[in-house]
Amino acid sequence: MRLICKWLFSRKSLLALKDSNDQVRKMSNFKLQTFHVLRTFILYTILSAALNNVQATEITDSAWNLDNSMGFPVNIPVLTCRTKYTEYEEIRWYKDHILLQKGPKAHFPNHMLVLKELLTTSPAVHFDHPLQLQGYYWCETDFINSSVVHKYLFRIAEVKTYAGKFISTEDDLGDDETLDIKEKIALKKKFYEDDMQNILFSFLPQPNNFVTDISPKKKGLEVKFYLYARRAFDPRRPQDLELVEDQSEWQFILEYLNNDTDAIDAAHYQQILEWTNLKGIHLKNIVLYSTLGCYEDKTLVPGEPPKELTWPFARLGEVVIPNEACSSKNGLAVTRICGGNFYVGARWGNPYGKCEESPSKLTSALKELYNEFGDKPKPHYINRLQRLTRNVTQLTVPDVHIVLDILTELSAVPELTPEEIDEAFTVIDRINSLNRSEMVSAKATIRFTNRLLRVIDNVLRFATEKSKEVFVTKQDFLVETKSTKVNTDVEDHIIGIAVLPSGHSNTLENASVEFLSTSSNIPKDISLAYFLLPPELVITREKETAPKHPCQINIVLFKDWSLFPKPTKVLYKRNYRIIPTPVMYVSLSGGPAWNLSSPVHLYFKNTHDKKIENPVCVNFDPLMDNEDGGWGTEGCEYGGLKDGFYICRCRHLSIFAVILSEKYDSSAFNFRLGTSVYVGCAVSIIGLSLTVLLYLLS
């Protein structure tokens, strides 16, 4: 059989078949061409995936400039381009896909873009007022690899901004042949801005609109614009109810345009009607979307009888469950995402999942606890949350979603005591013990990892601002914060933290830490993992944060990968198995650190006696994969195995890990694969023989 298979696929046999019959030759050529196309496509896909795994740049606000040209104070940021690599020469700054500036990196002091300078007439691209500065900014470099950029959204909180559009059926770009299409659109944008400001939306304070695009349609022009509203409500709502105020403003504007409010000026409304009739604009077809989030909504889901679900307010990118908290028969949560962006406004996506099961008593109790948040003292919520989550095997994905909402609210309270922080982390530790299927579903449907990291970030941030030191040890993770100042006669600084195991290999509970200063010895023999920051970074941060609070160094050590997505996009290997290893979250007061001239050194203890194939140092990026989070290698390099530790060197602060993989025995798999190949060959030979025989007989 093996000899027959070799003969079948040999070059000589293929040539013989082609010579014997024109039809067979054509089919063979077609198959060969198809094979080459498929091979090229597969190679392109693999290479694209490998290149797109690079996360290139991110924008942060490093300073703010105050502007009063609007009649009220507006903070306009100074943006800084951050990269995880240094091998580039040119920087390009963009806003909403428009190139603002470009040049050698030495041209931009500290990689900064001062937005306030765009309000002057000197730049090639400038804006008339601060409201037009709102939008997405990002920077790119001439780095050789294809890169993913993280965009920075600048918006002015004091102003409600809506993305709108309408069709003007009685208008066109005109027939002036001396102007090209871009010049015609620019003129039309200016005309519409003036008319909308002085007629259509003149009941709002000026400036009240910015036309972003005009495109010709089969009949008329489609006009897209931003609408700005600053009508003050009294009393002003708290920040967590900002969407309520946003919706009230939105409803007022639509009611005015549709003559459904008593606040209308009759003469002005007549002017609106005349202008819209002239342009062929139907007032009821003017669409406005919030750029803040999605308003409360109701939908019907299939069933006998159909069920109505109420979806709460959600901010852009947020995943929510309905107030009914129902689930499918297999326990999956019914969810819905508030999609869209600042360009087009917030749009509800389609509901995901089936509402087949009513909420359990546990789900209802958790939902009730979340709905009453803020009415009672904090210990009430923490104690009750502790009781409700005591039996983790009963938790479903809807339960985890609500628990994360409660933890997010609790972590946003800066007055939490150390005891309350410890109890909150106890709940997180319990969630880590979810059964495997529930954990996988939570990561896939409710952005589990990112929301959990946001809770931890809030705790660390408030601990820094309040100069509180946090130390928590649980079964699956450890949290430690410490001031970098060392009170000794000799000036010294804490630049690292070592985690010492408790003696039980399967838990971090009761583990201890040792703070590593510039002059201390490292306890390598007993450390599970440790890191060292560049001393110059710590000293610089101490000076920067001194006016506000002491500088703190933070570590969160996770026992394994269970709370994170698997690094499947990083490890392109077959027949390999990833070995569970710790994950280390390192941060420092003052925010992220990028482009470090001296790298951060991370050390992970080698606790395995297995043969490891090509260790890879990675970092977790919460903004990857539509903000679901993912792993990348950029900015990190593997430093080898030394003194029993896998060493990683990274030029930024992040969440780090080292991927250890072993090659498992695949002989049984290869035997099954070989057998199936031989059987397939036999079937092919029989089929080919019958085809040739039938052809000869015909």
TrEMBL record:
GO CC, alphabetical: membrane
Cell compartments where the protein resides: Membrane
Domain GAIN-B: 504-667
Transmembrane spans: 677-697
Keyword set includes Transferase: no
PROSITE patterns assigned: GAIN_B
SMART domains reported in the protein's UniProt record: GPS (SM00303)
Pfam families noted in UniProt: GPS
Keywords on record: Disulfide bond, Membrane, Transmembrane, Transmembrane helix
Name of the protein this chain belongs to: GAIN-B domain-containing protein
Organism: Araneus ventricosus
